[in-house]
Amino acid sequence: MREHLVLIGNGMAGVRLVEEILERNPERYDITIIGKECYPNYNRIMLSNVLQNKMTVDEIITNPYTWYEENNITLINEDPAVGIDTANKMITSEKGLKIPYDKLVFATGSHPFILPIPGSQKDGVVAFRTIDDTAEMMEAAGKHKKAVVIGGGLLGLEAAKGLQLQGMDVTIVHLAKWLMETQLDERAGKLLQGDLEAQGLKFLLEYATTEIVGDERVTGLRFKDGTTIDTDLVVMSIGIRPAAELAREAGLEVNRGIVVNDFMETNLPAIYAIGECVEHDGKTYGLVAPLFEQGKVLADVLTGIEAKPYQGSKTFTSLKVSGCDLYSAGNIMDTEGMQSIEAFDGVNRNYKKVFIKDNRIEGIVLYGETADGNRYYNMMKKGQQIADLQSIAILQASGEDAGSDDVVAWDDEETVCGCNGVTKGDIIRGIRDKGLSNVAEVGKITKAGTSCGKCKPQIQTLLEHELGEGVTASTGICSCTDLNRDQVMTQIYAKHLTTSSDVFKELHFASPEGCAKCRPAVNFYLNVAFPTEHKDERQSRYVNERMHANIQKDGTFSVIPRMRGGQTNPQQLLQIAKVAEKYSVPLVKVTGSQRIGLYGVKKQDLPAIWKELDMVSAQAYAKAFRSVKTCVGKNFCRFGTQDSMGLGIKLEERFEFIDTPHKFKVGVSACPRSCVESGVKDFGIICVENGYQIYIGGNGGTEVKEAQLLTTVETEEEVIEYCGALLQYYRETGIYAERTAPWVERLGFDAVKHILSDAAKRKDLIVALDVATAVKRKDPWHEIVGDRDIQEKLYSIDRRELVTVGD
């Protein structure tokens, strides 16, 4: 007989516990969940996105009713527990149901705090806690004009922004001197206020509300200094209190919350508690990540797995308001013994402050540029010594964020998604054990990336590391927008949008920063649309393109220098051998594209290796014109009809370093025997006695596609012209991450052939290609070897070990 587990509370903490139990042992319990609201489990963090019109209620439902049915869970909704007989292990619901239990878990959450002042019960006074609260606020916004939010904390600001987006005139009333005073210091709080004021929000700081005025419905507020303000809606967002009344009545020990030990056990046998209703070691938590950490411990306890004791949580905060990126974690109070490292960029309104005690990070405040948040957070959690680390970097290369790309090298227990307490190990195990292949699937299974979404690039990086290029979907535009590729490009041209942030804002993407899927796509589309105006956004590229090297399974990288047409010489071979020996390269391999690749290279060795090789990059990591594979040709082969190597070299010299929607591979075979498999290349040439047969749209990847004969030409110059025209037409019309095979199929081979067969159109395309690539075509490693800042920031190289071209 299975034991009966009853969970009081259908919120995020409790249901996450049930998910963890089902993951460990789905046959252990018969489970009943008792909920107060009329909805299945939903993501409360996302309510601000609903209010800000970024999501619908359906989209924030985490576990629909079908999930309960599929897992044989009894859900009792809209009927909260009102009594517990601990002696007989029986729960009574509000409607009189009697529910027995063998083990009981309290996950009752918290109540929003309502100011105990006259008028607080009037119509038009709401909290911001539930779907119903959100619906009431949206309904009020449709009928009324003015709103006041009492409380300048995280939820208050998100509520205020949402009401403003609903069309209301919004004022935030806050008792403290600056906003979010428990998470931000004064400078960051003032920066935040300035940005929000620029968006149209109003503020009354250091104001104490004493009365809510009006007859039946609120009409205004009165403050301690006697002044008043008119309003049609008041939103209380000034904190929460653990919902522990039922537990106290049942005889559980309660201080501020239900008191639990390190294994989430209460003072009564067979009764446990997790979440916002809990007090552990004198602390209560109102953020999600600690609640999930508690749930993992209790899931181990309830399934008989040896559990690591819960030791409390390091918490962090991130604001979901467009144009206001902030990150706060740990202790930011200037207590005794606390020191700080502070950097303020007044030009770009970026601010960083790290609080230090005993050479360890105790707290973090970031505003404007928050990419380093997770890195600092993990250093804080581990108690990492920082004495040997450089403290401040100024005027580093654009897009070269120090350390944020190193998620592959993190320990498995380090946190990737702070909102939901998901570690790198959780994500890696999901990818390996459950076959997860994209960010959405990772979010569904692990919850990573489903809250603020700022960790999605790191999730994408882990997917790329585990799965390689196969992780990239072929559509290019993600769930941030309903617009397809053509619609996005049309709007980019029509509105003359020249930055990704402009695209996300003007085209109303759901995420104001985009996501790991659309950022690289939009960056590419802007490069194509306005090549001379758009500055390539390195931080929007996938990790391989940011690092200019393929990341390998163990976190090392590959070095693959270009050998045009597959041709090399003794000097190059000697240099490659010397470098491989000097840097103890574990694997030296001839690649499938007739290059010599060095595999297993340490990240910090990359710049020095490229300097010593003195060769250009084959861009074997990029969505770009790759290599031209050739045979030896008529100069050596008795079957060869043309100089395939010479043509291959000319093609590489003409088109190398040009970005394309996906990798673009070329093959030149000197005779119809096609030793280089020209028939499965994006652009394939088969040399014949009277000239060159050109094939397009081949793919030798996971789904083999045979290239189709486009035409036969007489000269090498015509081959190069057709290749350039095809490249530009593919660049202008291809969906990002779409190979030429599906591109030709989507557009229709006859339509593509019609364009390329027109000599005037070919010439126009070549001109456009030359304009587009004149500025951007360059060997990336030549730039890196000559730039000490990039080496230091992107490759974590000690300044004493930096290399330059002149060394």
Structure description:
With 807 residues, this protein is an alpha/beta fold. It has a five-stranded parallel sheet with strand order 5-2-1-9-21. Strands 11-18-12-13-14 form a five-stranded parallel sheet, covered by helices on one side. Strands 23-24-27-26-25 form a five-stranded antiparallel sheet. A hairpin with a 4-residue loop joins strand 25 (339-345) and strand 26 (350-357). Helix 11 (424-434) packs across helix 13, helix 14 packs across helix 16 and helix 21 (716-733) crosses helix 24 (759-773).
Describe this protein with a few key phrases:
807 residues; alpha/beta; single chain; five-stranded parallel sheet; nitrate assimilation; 21% strand; 32% helix; 2Fe-2S; flavoprotein; FAD/NAD-binding_dom; 37 strands
